[in-house]
Write a structure and sequence with these properties.
The complex is a heterodimer of chains A (285) and B (310). By secondary structure, chain A is mainly alpha-helical. Helices cover 70% and strands 0% of the residues of chain A. Chain A starts with a helix and ends in a 5-residue tail after the last helix.
Amino acid sequence: MSTQEITTRPPIRVPLVIGLSFAWLVLMVVIAVTLDLWQPHDFQAMNLRTRFAPPVWMEGGSWSNIFGTDNLGRDVLSRLVVSIRISLMVALLGTLIGAVLGTLIGLLAARFGGIIDDLVMVGIDYQAALPFMILALAVVAFAGNSLTLFILLMGLYGWERYARIARGLALSAMTQGYAVAVKTLGASPLRIYGRHILPNIANALIVNMTLNFPQTIMLKTSLSFLGLGIQPPMTSLGNMVGFGRDFLLNAWWLATIPALVIFVTTLAFALVGDWVRDQLDPTSR
Amino acid sequence: MNLRFLLQKLARALLTVILIVTTVFVVLRLTGDPAMYVLGIEADPRALEQFRERWGLNDPIWQQYIRFIWNCLRGDFGYSYFEERDAMTAVMERLPKTLLLMGATGVFTMVVGIPMGVLAAIYRNSWVDRLTMTVSVAGFSLPNFVLGIFLILVFSVTLRWLPTGGSGTWKHLVMPVLTMGLAEAAVFARFTRSAMLEALNQPYMRTARAKGLRRNATVWLHALPNAAIPLVTITGFFVGTLIAGGVVTESVFSWPGLGRLLVTSVSNRDLAVVQIIVMFIAVSMVVTNLTIDLLYGWLDPRVGSARSGG
């Protein structure tokens, strides 16, 4: 490492909260990936003799069910672990689909203008007039509860923000020197947009992705809480809270533990997202 | 503001409403047979056929659509299969409860959020500021139903001060309003803070101080009205989150409003009711956005002329 590098670019200082958030997110990803090591029981196995067993730190709890059991005697920890994987997967795939779709639409609007641009604008108006939650509620409930459909729906969420950002930045990029230069050199539109404009506007899109991700998790868990989306015997974080709500009075852990996981995870994502935005774009502070 | 600008805006708003109503209509009709849901899967095939015949479910979808629009224009919004009565009556019955919840949440949000933002801006980097910013980040990443569950645990299960659900007294209103309002108040505080920080640095603030006004007077009478302009913009988002949040919050607290009716009607496949609620939401969102656009032009004439010119 040369000394010059150090003087020109001061090392990034990571605040403690951000470090902790990162650590939590890494833990979540590790849990989701190495699922089988963490699952003390089969998450669907019922045991009616140990229904409503409390967590280990409470009176009557035992190490065989660290977070207790639910109304059917199923192990809460095992269900939690499976839920984390499902919820993270849906949110991640949804965010990726949304980013690609939205960016593509935005770039198409910028490239062709005219009627395509108008159509995209109508779509954005539409999205602004119907809270996505309501649309998702209608579609999921009526079109059935397949996981694929659910992920696609999450992908649709927030497309208009990517589209608006991509469109605006691409339009202004086309007037800048580098884009004009490659255009004059005779590059094809695909090359101009794909190889030159997209890399230049990627920062803003990545920032939007980190901000969108926790919101996708929140939307996804809210829908599951209402009993839509992932259906039993499969489980997800929102599902667990939804079922646990009915047992708050006698078995608080059923809803509270997954609720805490949701809260800490979205909070960690929001903090890291804010921080990444500040790093990538110092002017927005 | 000229007439053409206004008409253009109105036309776009109308187009949006029509589009939303149409998609919901198509989605609802294409994805399932209401007869099965209402009469049950084991119902007599003849009864099913009769049901479909009676409600015109056998006709091609475009015929159903034209009939639907025509009926809406005549003021007939359909029949609730599930509650076996006029769908509009069923919806209107629930509306006051939802309006009460939203109104209370709106008041709470403004009364708590705006002063907090102003204080955070004046005492920048103090504990008020840090508290506001922390609460706003936490509130923003706390889903409604999670906060609702925590509140129930604290105030109903542990302290036994408030009922876990239902409606009727002011006690029933406390937790739903907190659930929806806390995060929103934090968002308002955050926006107010940044708008105030900008306004406090303007030359007119120095002028106001120089002519002998007290500091409090300059903050509340000069800076805040100017900072209010950006606040108008987030009101649109606010109404949207209130509607979406209401669906979840009403379900958490068994609040007998439109949101809960929407969730139950969706699972009962009660087409007419879902349609009316979605229409209500679309119209109120479009009207809100339109009002904000117009209000913005009126509050800040620079925006209005720039928009109508372009």
